[in-house]
Amino acid sequence: MFSRLPEGGLIDREHSFSFTFNNKKRIGYKGDTLASALLANNQLFIARSFKYHRPRGVFSAGSEEPNALVQLGRGSFSEPNTKTTNIELHDNLNAKSQNYKLSLQFDLLGINDKLSPFLSAGFYYKTFMWPKLFWEKLYEPIIRSSAGLGKLSGYPDPDNYDKGFLHCDILVVGGGPSGLFSALVAGRAGARVILADEDFRLGGRLNSDREEINNQSGREWTTQTIAELKSLDNVRLLPRTVVFGNYDHGIFGALEQRPDALPGINKKPKTVLWRIYSKRSIICTGATERSIGFGNNDRPGILLAGAMRTYLNRFAVKPGDQVALFTNNDSGLKTANDLADRDIAVTVIDTRPNQDQNTDNKYHDYIAGGRVADVRGKKAINSIILTDGKSIKVDSLAVAGGWNPNVHLTCHKRTKPVWNEKIQAFVPGKNLTDGMRVAGSASGLFDLSSTLLSSISTANLTLEDLGFPTSQYPNFETSAEPTDITPFWHVKEARSRSWIDLQNDVTTKDIAQAHNEGFQDVEHLKRYTTLGMATDQGRTSNVSALAIMSERTGKSISETGITIFRPPYIPIPIGALAGRSRGKHFRPTRFTPSHRWAEKQGAVFVETGNWLRAQWYPLEGETHWRQSVDREVLSTRESVGVCDVSTLGKIDCQGRDTAEFLNRVYSNPFLKLPVGKVRYGLMMREDGIVYDDGTVARLADNHYVITTTTANAVLVFRQLEFARQCLWPQLDVHLISTTDGWAQFSVAGPNSRSLLAKIVDDFDLSNQAFPFMACANLTVCGGRKARLFRISFSGELAYEIAVPSRYGNSMMKTLIKAGQEFDVVPYGTEALGVMRIEKGHFAGNELTGQTTAFNLGLEHMVSKKKDSIGNKLSERSGLNQPDGIRLVGFVPVDRNQQFNAGAHFISRGKEKKLENDEGWMTSVAHSPTMGHTIGLGFIKNGLNRFDEIVHAVDPLRGKNTDVKICSPHFYDPDGERQRG
Amino acid sequence: MIIEHPLLGPRDAAEFVYLGDASLIARPDWENPDAGKEFFEYLYLRDNPEGMHRELWYHEQGDRSWLVVTRNTLTHEILNVELARQIALAMGR
């Protein structure tokens, strides 16, 4: 049985933590991972496997862990699929097993294991093909309910996540011996260094091994090195930080776990997502051990040899009194030695035939050329059986199949790793980008002195690149570390299933089957068997699997190759990627200048893009939005109304050639617009589709202010800058967006002139002095700078008055106060919309990105006598068919009927099918002025079909209304009111 | 990616908006006899090269410069960054 050694280890025995696993209370220490604490409590069986629901336990001691995943935390804080091997133990930690039905000990889906002959590779592809109907009704619900590992809480994630940006000369990834020393060499030379490591304790394998450096213990050396790094202001150490991706131009993504976040207690961020900008990088990510395939090699109590050494040395976990080691290389013997030194009886089974290294009888037994064929014990192993039938009683088994350098970050930009025959593993390829270099075991150097030497030379080369001074360092004296390995991937004599990918339950048989069925390419092998997928990305299994595949194909491993490595290196929670950009903070909210006032009036708001605009202003007693909107429309048309229209885009255009510039970006002519006048402008895309519309006001000779629609403010400005810089760079014109600079209010209705007269300073508002489409700079309220435009969207006598934004809220108050004697109303976007439909103005609903000036009835606005954006391609015949769709108005034949936007038009007597579709309804409103529903829409040849009755078919809402085609100008078609 | 802005130095690509092929600067003359066809080709027929590509980027979250960035579409290596206005002027626009 596993237990805690009475002394030793890098744990703080003064500092014990109590935690629960599957509702049972356990004790661990500060410095433990959840995995080490569970092992010390002899908890070997931790989870059920993904597909066959086999009992599984801790297999590794790092983020490569395929088995020991748990559900962490309670309720909404619950987090699935966390790796016990990565979780830093803390007080009151709560973890539960996952992936079982009923209980961990008795799992209903354990039956899958018995059914395994039917569930092998490609099972899904073959079985769920037919009958077709079964997929939705039967297969999918079953697969969904048994798929996945842990469960999401189903609640919004209450944790906080932060993001941050870091810059450095040199990023060192990995805090093992080579990472620490690379950082030290670079730090001493004065470079700005960041060192990141995923562990909460820096030191890498020096925390797990008992090596010596320069007659110091590895641990003392580590402590000293870290202390010096901490003393350097130009070095930043980031423990608990995994660098998960390498992106373009030296940018890395990293995720830091924050130890000070206490879920549900403080609101400190749980993680910080760092974007690290580096000039150079040194990859010191070390290596990951791999297993060997033999029967039932997935049982709890079987660990990777390096992991067992970590639990023994770093966490003081004793893996029983009798332990076996199955190895094909020298590194495994280090585990055997460390065990033997603690008086644990070790049996070494070495696949290498002539290797009896038990010269001083250190080991209980040494079986050279031996092989493990099978093990006994389901929820924890109790004995192993060798190929010769010999059975050995054990508490645990360590497996050493060799080491794979962690080449991931060197491959994210598609540099392929290369096979190294000597170490039987892939090492980073040449030609790494953006000044990336690799040192230590990540580069394939497995003995400590070579590792440290490589960190010196790598750091010096990197310093040289950046112009920092380099220094010479003497060689390191370290304990000798033999690294001989003979390739040995799986025990062919094994009769029980041999597991390669423990997370996805892929066996040697599955690989053989993939080979037999033609899925021999590594990428096919991966997808057919699911090998190398999920949270561990096959870090302990990929290389072994393709070695077994290459045995079958007869190709070398080098020819077989390895699947592409893509970021992220570990799973990144979506919450970490979202950071603070959640809910309302997903994007900024823009408030109109009169927002505070509108809020006090109890306005109902609507989101339009990032803007929050008043939609209507309900009065006491109004219970339905239509009551408020109808009142706002009627009051405006009868007397006067005020609306905040500041959200329209405003672009200030100045310079000698502004008129010429505007003439080229608008479809209609602008060269002759006089000072003090406003003109409506139509803007097209280069392909001849209408883009936007607005007004152009000429305030002075070389000073214009143009407006855009709210939705297109950013895009139009971008397009105008393109035209200014790229198309006509010689024109003297300068643009600046002033959307946020000016608050603008529409004052509309027959009494608008009388109302404004109370506000303007000495300004003649008479129709002669300031006619329709006039504009002027003026002052209001006793000297406040303002702009006045006589433009009308409502169709009434109307003005738009603009003041600097900081006066916006008080201008709204001033207008309402001054308008009291006229019973002024504020009106919102809904009334604005009703009035524009009554007037037949098109808006966003009509500008679909497919409609031309011809469709909108504005073809006369496209000048053929000048060059402007879109004019040429708008002439294409396809866009100008005589029976093309035209914008017209629609009224219900039975005035009591209502219809909706989105309805499609079919001629009377024709079948309601797609072929007979003649257009669609774009905008619909109840017109309080007319007393019935009105609509705008596009219909083929519409302008020649006034008074014709067609069907407005709305299958979505099950409606079918007879409507009459009419002019789109329902209200004051001759425009007498706006000119009055 | 990092774009070496000719006026502002290295800036993160997130500050920019991408448009496309720098040939969009070469807008045809509307009075050419074949202008309809030229505009069609200008707008719709663009290369999508594997390797070096000259393309327009707009520094929207910055100084609003339009830039011509020469970028390797395979490796994202950026070889040159120029002000689009200078290029347009050099082209005689």
Secondary-structure blueprint of this entry?
The complex is a heterodimer of chains A (980) and B (93).
Chain A: E1 3-4, E2 12-21, E3 24-30, H1 34-40, E4 47-48, E5 55-56, E6 69-72, E7 79-83, E8 94-96, H2 111-114, H3 123-127, H4 132-146, E9 161-173, H5 177-188, E10 193-196, E11 212-213, E12 216-217, H6 218-231, E13 235-238, E14 241-247, E15 251-257, E16 271-283, E17 287-289, E18 302-304, H7 305-313, E19 317-318, E20 322-327, H8 331-341, E21 345-350, E22 365-368, E23 372-376, E24 383-386, E25 391-393, E26 396-400, E27 403-405, H9 408-411, E28 418-420, E29 425-427, E30 436-438, H10 448-466, E31 499-501, E32 506-507, H11 508-516, H12 522-529, H13 542-553, H14 557-560, H15 574-578, E33 590-591, H16 595-600, E34 604-608, E35 611-616, H17 625-638, E36 641-644, E37 649-654, H18 658-665, E38 678-684, E39 690-700, E40 703-708, H19 713-727, E41 734-737, E42 742-748, H20 752-757, E43 775-780, E44 784-789, E45 798-804, H21 808-818, E46 825-826, H22 829-839, E47 885-892, E48 904-907, E49 919-927, E50 932-940, E51 949-954, E52 959-966, H23 976-979
Helix pairs in contact in A: 5-6, 5-10, 7-8, 11-12, 11-13, 17-22
Chain B: E1 2-5, E2 9-12, E3 17-21, H1 35-44, E4 52-58, E5 66-72, E6 78-83, H2 84-90
Antiparallel strand pairs in B: 1-2, 3-4, 4-5, 5-6
